[in-house]
Specification:
alpha+beta, 41% helix, 82 residues
Length: 82
C-alpha cells in the first residue's frame, strides 16, 4: 500500500514553522504511532518510509528491527552523508 501524507507539506513550502510542527504532530498521532503499534503487534511485517524532498530519505523497518536495542543511534550526518 502506498500513501502520500502531506499534512506538513503546505506549511513547509511557506516556511510556516508552527504549521509544520502541527502537521508533524498530526502525522505522529494519526499515522506513525498506529503504524508502529501495528508493527509491534505483528499486524504488519514491514514499513517503508520514503521522503523525496531535498532529504531523499528512504527507511525500511521490519518487526525484527524493533529488537535491535544494542545499536546506538547515529547522527543523521552519518546515516545520510552528502
Amino acid at each position: 500500500m502506498l500513501l502520500h501524507l502531506d499534512a506538513a507539506e503546505g506549511a513547509a513550502q511557506f516556511r510556516d514553522v508552527w504549521g509544520w510542527r502541527e502537521g508533524l504532530l498530526q502525522l505522529e498521532r494519526d499515522w506513525f504511532a498506529p503504524t508502529l503499534a501495528a508493527l509491534q503487534q505483528g499486524r504488519l511485517s514491514e514499513v517503508q518510509l520514503c521522503c523525496h524532498g531535498s532529504a531523499g530519505l528512504h527507511s525500511r523497518t521490519t518487526r525484527l528491527d524493533l529488537w535491535k536495542l544494542w545499536r546506538r543511534p547515529l547522527p543523521l550526518c552519518k546515516l545520510y552523508p552528502q
